[in-house]
Specification:
single chain, alpha+beta, globular, 23 helices
Amino acid sequence: MFLRIFLIFPMAGVTFFLYGALVNLGYIEENRCRMTYMFEHPQYTRIPVQGGDRFPKYGLYAYSEGFITQRVQQRHFSGAPVLFVPGSGGSYKQVRSLASVSLRKGIDNNWQAHLDYFSVDLNEELSGVYGGYLQDQTHFLELCVQEIARLYGARGPSTRMFIVGHSVGGKLAQAVVALGGGRRIDRHVAGIVTLSAPVDKPVVLLDHYHQSFYDRIENAWQTNRSIIGDQNVLATEPRKPLDDLLLITIGGGIRDIIVHDGLTASRYADLHAMTHNIPNVWLSVDHLCAMWCLQFVLVVNRFLYSMLVPLGRNSYGFVEDKHTKLAKANRFLVQSGGEHDFRPSEPIVHHPEQEEWIEDIRRSFTEQHRAGLSRTRVQMIRLVPDKPMHRFLRLEVINSEQEDDWLSVCAAVDVFANSRVCLQSTSLANYTLPVPSSKFDRFGALLDLQELMQRNPRWTHVLLKIRRTFKPVQFSVDQFNPAEREIRLAMPYWFDYRKHTILRDASVDDSFYRIKIDGMTQPHQTIALDLQAVACDAVQGTVAVKVHVPWAKGYDRYAFHEELNRTTVYIYPPIENPFTGATDGDNTPLPITVDVHLTPGCSYRIEYAQSLRVSIARIVQQHWVVVPAHCVALLLLAFKDQLAQTTPDDPAFVVGKLRSSLTKPAPLVVLLAVSSLLGKFLPLFKSIPPIESLGTPLAISIVIHLVALGLLIVMTLALCGAIAFCANFAHKIILRLIALPIPVMSSSFLSCIHRFPLAIAVLLVAIALTACGGVSLLCAAAVYFVLLSKAYEDYLEAFVFRTAQRIAARLFGTAGREPREQRPGRRPRWWPSQQSGDEPMVINFHLPLFLLVILQAMLNVPSVITWAKNYHYSNTLQPDPSLVPALVVLACLAVLWQLNTPRQVRGYELLAALLVVVAFVSVLYCQVYVYRLNYAVAIVFVAITLHQILAPKRPEENAED
C-alpha cells in the first residue's frame, strides 16, 4: 500500500514537468511583435572567399533588393559593413529582416549613409547540440571577415565592421576575434552584438567539443580583455588588445525558451540589455523572433546608423572611439533616465509673453486637452518644505512632443502680468524616462522634492512645459507621501495558492505605487501581479510595470498592457541572487522593486498570488538539462537493489524485478541525501576534482528526482508491455525486413540471426566505425529489444509446457516428457537457469542494461541528426563524440549476449557497490557536463562484463535442494 502511494509522487512530477513544457511553448506571454515586410524580392549574392575551398559546405552572401543588386554583383560596396552570423540550425537568409529595414533607410538617405549587410551560410548545422563543427565554423568566419575587408579596396586594411550573431553565432563572433590572441581579426571588428546567445555558458554540454571550445575562448578573452566593472584591474594594468572592442549582449526574456535570460549576459560585455527593457521595444521575444520582430529590428538598425561617419567621397564607416559607440548603445538600447543627480547643462530660457503660466494648488490631478493647446503651457508645481504629503512628485505626459526642456526646476522670483514666473530654469531631463506604450508617446518622472530643495534651497517650483500642439494631450500631477505608496511583500517559503489583495479601490488620482518583495532570490520563484481597473473616466493610457532586480544589472523588465480593465504581470528574478553587492549590510538580500505606473483617472485594485504554472515552466526551462544524470543515477541504484536480493552465502543467485526496485523510496532518499552531503563536503578536499556547483534549492532537487524516477517507471512499464505483447509481432517484422529477395544474402542474414548475437554485435561495431556511434547505439537498442522479446517467448512456451506437465501429473499420475529444448545440454542461449517469481531472471538482469543503452542512445541523438544532415558530404561523422563510448558498450554487449548471463558467480555485492559509486558520480559530475554520462554508462558495462567473465562460480546446490 505504501509503495502504491509513493508511486503517485513520481507520476505527479512527470505530469507537472509536461505541463511546464506546454506552458513554455506559448502560454506565458503573447507574441506582440509586428512582422517585417519587404518592398522588393530579396537577393542573396554569393561572394567568393579566398581559402574557402577547404569549407565547401559554407558560403558568404551579400544582401540586396531591386536596383541595389546590380551594385552588389559588381562588388561595389561603399557603406559600413555588418556581418550576420546565424545560430544553431539557422539559415543565412535570416538576415533578411535586419538587412531589408536597413536598405530602406539607406534608400531614404539617397544611398549616402548606409549599411552593407553580409551573411554567413553555415549549412544550417546544429552547432548548439553538436560541437564538432564549431572549430571549422570559426575558421570560415575568420576568412569571411578578411574577405569583406578586401571588398572595400583601398580602405580595406582599415575597414571595421559590426558582427551581429544570433544564438551560437554570437559565440562564434566572440571566438573569431580571440584567434591569435586578438591581434589578427579584431582590427577589422568595431563591435559585436549578440542576440539571444549563450555567451559565457552553453545551454547544454552534449559533447566535449563544446566544453573545449568554450574553455579555449574563455582563456583567450581572459588574457586579452578586461572584465567590465573591475576598476582595480583597469587602473593597475595596461589596456588589453580586446578592450577597445564593443561587446553588447541582448536577451529575449521569458518567451525565449531555448536560451533563458540568465545565459545571455557576459562578464566581458560593455552593455547587457533585454528586449523588454529596450525603449520602443518593451517586449519579450522568442528565440527566432529576435531576428524578425519589427520593433526590435528598427532599434538595432537605428543604433548601427547612429555610429556612421563619412570616410571619404561616398564612403562610410563606423566611428572609432569606443566611448562614443558605448554612448550610442546606451541611448538606443538602455532605458536611461531617472537618475537622481544633476548633469551640467545650459540654463533653460523661458519667454512668459509667449507662454501660459499656471500654478495649481491641487496635490493630484489630471488634465486632458483633446483639441491640443493653442499656446505653450508651463505648469508650476510648488515645492513645499517639510511636509511628508508633498515630498514625492510623480509627473506624466501623454502624446506631447518632448524636448530636453520639458521638465525643469527654478526660483520663481520674476513677475510677469501680476504672476510669478521664471525667466531661467535648470533642466531635470536626467530625471525623466519614457513609459512603455505602443499607442502614445508617454513620458514620466519621479522626483524627491525634499532632495531638490536640499540641493538648492532657493528653488521654489518644478516646471512642466507642454509645447503648442494640435494633437490631443494629457498630463497628470501626483504629489504624495512615499510611505503611503510603498507596499512590502514577503515571498512565502512554500507554495501559497491563495490570492492576496494589497490595494483595494485606489484613488483615481493615484498614478504610482512601489512594491518591494523580500525573499525572492531563486529564478523559479514567481508572483503573478494582477492589476484590475475598477472604474475609469474615459481616459487613455496604459498600465506600465517596471521590475528592478538589484543583483542583475541589465535585467530590468518593463511590462505594459493596452487594455485598461485587467493586466497580469509575472515577477521573477532572472538569475539567482549571489549575495554579493545586493545586500543591505547585514547579509540580507535587497528586495526586488516593482514600480507600478497606473493610468490617471482610473481606480485600481491590485492583487497578487504565487504563480504555480509559471514557476513550473521556469523550473522546466532551467533544469531540464539535469534530468538525464538523475535518470542514470536512479537506474543504477535500482539495478543495485536487484543484484542485492541474494546474500553471498546463498547457493543460487536471483535477480529482483526492476519495477519493484524503482518503486522503493529508499534509493530516491539515499541519492537525495547523500548527494547533498557530498556536495557540501567534497569541495573541502582539494585532491578531489571539483564537483558541479549548481546551487539548486532542496525543493527543486526533490522535484527533479521525482521527475527522473517517474520517467524511469514509465519507460520500464512501456518496455515490459512492449516485450510482453509486441515481441512476437516485432520479431516477425524484423525477419521479414531482412528476408531479401536475393537467396544468398537472405540465407546469410538468416544464418546471422541463428548465430545471434555475436555476429550482430560485430555488425554494430562496423556501423559505428563507418557511420556514427549514435546510429550503432540506436541499432543496438533495437537488437536488444528483439533478444529480450525472444527470451520472453521462450519463457512463455516453457511456462505453458510446465503447466501442462503439472496438470497431466495430477490427472494421470505421471509427468509428461521433457521438451527437446529443455533436455540436458540443449538449453537455448537466452534461457535462464533460475526463475524469479513469474518472470525469467534473464529479463530482470538485462532490462536495466537495455534501459542504459536506450538512455545512452538518446544522449547521442544529436550526433545522429548531424550525421544524417551531413551524409551527402561524408558517410562518416567526423569528429564523432559518441564513437568511443559506443565501441566500449558494443564490445561489452557482444560478450553479454554471447554468454548465458547472468551467471551463477560470486562478487555481485562488489558489483552493486560499484553501481552506487557511479550513481553518485553521475549526480555530482554529470548534471552540467551531460556528455560524461556516456563514459559513466560505458564504465558500468565494462564492470558487468568483466565480472561475468572473471568472477568465480558459486558452489552448486545439493541434489536434495
